[in-house]
Amino acid sequence: MRPLVFELLVALLITGLSIFSTIKYRYRPTPANQRAKCSGYKLTSISLTDHGLNGSLTLAGEPCNVYGNDIFNLALEVTYETDDILNVRIYDTEERQFQVPDYVLPRKHFHKARNPTYEFSYTENTFGFVVKRKSNGEVLFNSTGVQLVFEDQYVSFGSKVHDIMHVYGLGENVDNFLRPRDSLSTLWTRDTPSPPRQNIYGFHPFYLDLRDSGRSHGVFLRNSHGMDVVLKPVANASKIEYRILGGVIDLYFILGGEDGNPKSVIEQYTDIIGKPHMPNYWALGWHQCRWGYGTIEMVEEVVENYKKAEIPLEVMWTDIDYMDQYRDFTLHPTNFPLYKVQSFLTKLHSQNQKHVFIVDPAIYHGDDYAPYKEGVDLDVFIKNRDGSIYYGRVWPGFTAFPDWFAPNTQLWWTRQFQRFLEDVPVDGIWIDMNEPASFCFGSCGSGHPPGEHPQGSVDDLVINPNDPVFEPGVPDYNLLNPPYKIHNGYEFLSTQTVATNATHWNNLTEYQTHNLYGHMEGIATYKTLTTINPKTRPFILSRSTFPGSGTYVGHWSGDNWASWPYLYYSITGILNFQMYGIPYVGADVCGFNNHTDEELCNRWHSLGAFYPFARNHNAHNTIAQEPYIWKSITEAAKKALHVRYTLLPYYYTLFAAAYEKGTPVWRALMFEFTDDHTTWDIDKQFMIGPAVLVTPVLDSGRVDVKGYFPKGIWYDWYTHERVYGANRMILDAPLGHIPVHIRGGSVILTQRPAYTTTESRQQPFELIVALDETGHASGEAYLDDGVSLEPVESLRIRFSVCGNRQVVMRSVGSYKPNAKLEKLIIMGVGLDLVVDCGYIDMNKNAVITF
Ligand SMILES: *[C@@H]1O[C@H](CO)[C@@H](O)[C@H](O)[C@H]1NC(C)=O
Ligand SMILES: *[C@@H]1O[C@H](CO)[C@@H](O)[C@H](O)[C@H]1NC(C)=O
Ligand SMILES: *[C@@H]1O[C@H](CO)[C@@H](O)[C@H](O)[C@H]1NC(C)=O
Ligand SMILES: *[C@@H]1O[C@H](CO)[C@@H](O)[C@H](O)[C@H]1NC(C)=O
Ligand SMILES: *[C@@H]1O[C@H](CO)[C@@H](O)[C@H](O)[C@H]1NC(C)=O
Ligand SMILES: *[C@@H]1O[C@H](CO)[C@@H](O)[C@H](O)[C@H]1NC(C)=O
């Protein structure tokens, strides 16, 4: 959530937003002196290794020192990791530049390339390299066209290719799905109410590049420093240029097989960064939250109101309101007394519902506060250069910040949760404000007595941001104000966060590690919850993420706005995170900031019901927006959630594929219909898995919506009416209705919905069989107990129809679902049948004729 001090700046921000939408992208051009003076590197030696090449690079001329100090000697290491993954590393021979440590993001050494789909070549003088796709000779990356500058505080390189790059990724940002050809993306994690086209919470230096050939590849840069990534069209060529505040060049090229299939690229990307976690089955139910449920009675009332309105509610949430003076691991003594919270949780659990609490990383600074005292004793907090604790300010007042690099931090963090969850057994943890957010500019200073409450405002600056701050022992290394200015949405790197000259364990600086903070908190929280409950899947939702975070946490798009553009941005945000290996993602339904209105909130409930993570949430100073507040929205929510809950077994199967292979759950149409260029920039519709197409209304005052249907036959979810593809269509979409279509050729396992997912899982299974023009269809399903970290039993079922009006069902596995298959819903050319099929055991192979 956004800090109070920023309310004053809302007006400013709003002006900012409209400016951004008209002037689009602003960036400073490459400085003239860089081009003129930097001489690049020459390759002075090269040798073959078992898995690639090793070489040495030396500065080719005089240092240019554009934004720091040129580094004279570099090592080149090229590793043919797999047939589809190539790693190219260029780093300082002395290895003084910060590199993302293995314990933050384990580096996988595959070393199993046999017959690579790529070709690596280089030029010696001036050094440059080229990565080509073997099958068609396509140049994927040619570093020769962009100057290589390797300085302590500035690393710049890139690629120019004579081709059109269609680039997706480089987030987290609020924008179209397809990156504009002329654009700049800034990566630096930041607490901000989600302004379009600026850096926000997460850090994902990954892009997918789709070429006119219809083949795509991915490029991942393993580097945690703040950076700008510039895309530029140059005549009929395209250029990408990285401008990074330090670290090394550590690039992974991901080919996605010979045909460069985007789904394969993403799967292979998650081979490198780690597979997404498997969510609990209940996590796929509907969630309700708001900032401003000020008492436990209010929370209880919301649960009851949902029930009265018969709108499914799976998970109830509480924001910072539950805490005593906003301190972590406490309950407000009068608004959320322990005994009432406990009886509330008992009742909720008896109704098969869950509860999630928010926890912020910043720890209140007070001698009477055990988590702080223990943290001091165990030496877990971020420091000033002189070794004293660094203080910032968040909701509880002056705060210390856990340093996830310190050796005792995990133990300390686990202990706090153990103690708290013993009393208050909530089902999941929401980690917010972990960019990390702090309301002082840089440090709040150390001179504050414990327990002092902040009276001042953001402008009680204790440092002059324009003063250079040098790291001791390293000449001219400016931590607070580096010579190259990335296009951070705030003027200084340290604005609204921990000062970049703060010190982590082992003399690491915030400058180097800032973008790892939320990711490391996610890992620590995951380890905590699996220590407490070794057998169950943790539920963790995190605002700030980094490559690999999806293994531990889900994500929501942060503090969005109750406005029509943000209804659309929710789709592009979710599609982006599917590429970052974090498929469990959503956006605050009806909008977080600003008052929503009945029409917007209605449309948002229709769309939000399909988010992988589906939650209504808003800010404390806005009107109530639970779906039961308006009759029309009650109806809209019930109708859309009926579809979602019917599809729960399908969603769960998609998450199992994400967990096993990294396959996206939500898919841009481009992912499913890569050969069809029309789909490449479609981001107002989306696919759920391979079989379901959703076409939401994203504008006010409409009763219909235009959508594109790729080649094939499609069936309306509600009426089974056929739509023939390769066409744009206008669909009826009165308020409360969201068009959903099933792709011909699919078989989808569904279950009759009930109030909670637990009850839904007792209901009969039904099979949707949507035939293609030739009477064929296939599909699969995955089931297990829905909560075990490593399920002992599971069940996989394959369904197929081969033009002969018979569904063949093949089951493997010992998990026994609580329900049987009772119905087939057949859609086909000249067919629209519902067939009762008796009670078919899901664990048996069967042939069902219709
Ligand atoms: C290549 O360089 C790396 C890093 O310096 C080193 O560990 C490795 O042994 C080198 N391989 C060969 C074959 O020289
Ligand atoms: C790479 O770029 C350089 C400079 O733009 C160009 O001379 C060279 O032909 C390119 N190589 C390939 C394989 O396209
Ligand atoms: C466009 O690309 C073609 C083929 O790569 C090249 O021959 C031609 O000179 C380019 N045109 C411009 C304007 O750069
Ligand atoms: C950062 O530098 C400023 C200015 O020199 C100094 O006042 C401050 O204490 C430093 N902060 C930390 C965390 O070391
Ligand atoms: C950290 O830096 C301080 C001051 O430069 C130095 O005295 C200390 O030895 C360093 N510690 C480590 C672990 O490198
Ligand atoms: C928030 O609401 C104000 C007042 O209605 C409006 O002017 C502003 O445009 C809204 N902000 C956004 C981002 O929608």
TrEMBL record:
<dbReference type="Pfam" id="PF21365">
    <property type="entry name" value="Glyco_hydro_31_3rd"/>
</dbReference>
<keyword id="KW-0325">Glycoprotein</keyword>
<dbReference type="GO" id="GO:0030246">
    <property type="term" value="F:carbohydrate binding"/>
</dbReference>
<keyword id="KW-0378">Hydrolase</keyword>
<feature type="domain" description="Glycosyl hydrolase family 31 C-terminal">
    <location>
        <begin position="662"/>
        <end position="748"/>
    </location>
</feature>
<dbReference type="InterPro" id="IPR025887">
    <property type="entry name" value="Glyco_hydro_31_N_dom"/>
</dbReference>
<keyword id="KW-0326">Glycosidase</keyword>
<dbReference type="InterPro" id="IPR000322">
    <property type="entry name" value="Glyco_hydro_31_TIM"/>
</dbReference>
<feature type="domain" description="Glycoside hydrolase family 31 N-terminal">
    <location>
        <begin position="122"/>
        <end position="227"/>
    </location>
</feature>
<dbReference type="InterPro" id="IPR030458">
    <property type="entry name" value="Glyco_hydro_31_AS"/>
</dbReference>
<dbReference type="InterPro" id="IPR048395">
    <property type="entry name" value="Glyco_hydro_31_C"/>
</dbReference>
<protein>
    <recommendedName>
        <fullName>alpha-glucosidase</fullName>
        <ecNumber>3.2.1.20</ecNumber>
    </recommendedName>
</protein>
<keyword id="KW-0732">Signal</keyword>
<dbReference type="InterPro" id="IPR030459">
    <property type="entry name" value="Glyco_hydro_31_CS"/>
</dbReference>
<dbReference type="InterPro" id="IPR013780">
    <property type="entry name" value="Glyco_hydro_b"/>
</dbReference>
<dbReference type="InterPro" id="IPR017853">
    <property type="entry name" value="GH"/>
</dbReference>
<comment type="similarity">
    <text>Belongs to the glycosyl hydrolase 31 family.</text>
</comment>
<dbReference type="Pfam" id="PF01055">
    <property type="entry name" value="Glyco_hydro_31_2nd"/>
</dbReference>
<dbReference type="Pfam" id="PF13802">
    <property type="entry name" value="Gal_mutarotas_2"/>
</dbReference>
<dbReference type="InterPro" id="IPR011013">
    <property type="entry name" value="Gal_mutarotase_sf_dom"/>
</dbReference>
<dbReference type="GO" id="GO:0090599">
    <property type="term" value="F:alpha-glucosidase activity"/>
</dbReference>
<feature type="domain" description="Glycoside hydrolase family 31 TIM barrel">
    <location>
        <begin position="276"/>
        <end position="654"/>
    </location>
</feature>
<dbReference type="GO" id="GO:0005975">
    <property type="term" value="P:carbohydrate metabolic process"/>
</dbReference>
